[in-house]
Amino acid sequence: MADIQLFGLHPWxxxxxxxxxxxxxxxxxxxxxxxxxxxxxxxxxxxxxFALHPFNVECVAWVSERKSLxxxxxxxxxxxxxxxxxxxxxxxxxxxxxxxxxxxxxSKPMIITLPFALLLLDYxxxxxxxxxxxxxxxxxxxxxxxxxxxxxxPLFLLSAGSAYVTVLAQAxxxxxxxxxILTFPVRLANALxxxxxxxxxxxxxxx
Length: 207
What we know:
By secondary structure, this protein is mainly α. The protein has two domains: 2-176, no CATH class; 177-207. Helix content is 75%, strand content 0%. α2 (11-37) runs antiparallel to α3 and α6 packs parallel to α9.
């Protein structure tokens, strides 16, 4: 609605806003990777792929896909907030993370897996979890894992709530097939095929 107030129905303004958000996301991703890995040029190459890959054309070119740009924006900010929080845990810093995650979910539910992504970050590059090479390390791994999981319960609750609302809304608009129409094996096969197709397209290949 802010775009309408600023630019009316002139499309150039809406497209310029999308392009600006994409540029901001590119910069945020670069600084995230640079801070996480310490590698300058490797981070630059990854960010260049993110900036120019055809996967992102729709998000930038279609004004209706502004939700994806906003969701990505809040995702990157949430990752920064988590890094800020772990350096000095506190209510304000954790609340900032939760609020940014909520904004991301409100933009588009694709950010729903963020709590799991944060657990992966705890493993690498933050190294909060030891590599389970033997039984002793495995025991220590799970001993340190549970506090990290409990720490993210508010985020998991937000994810669960978003998933419920999304499925409910999609079901009411008949966007989800009735359970009896598509069997579980068919749904599973479709999910696996979709993952494979997405990977192939990411590599510039055709199925």
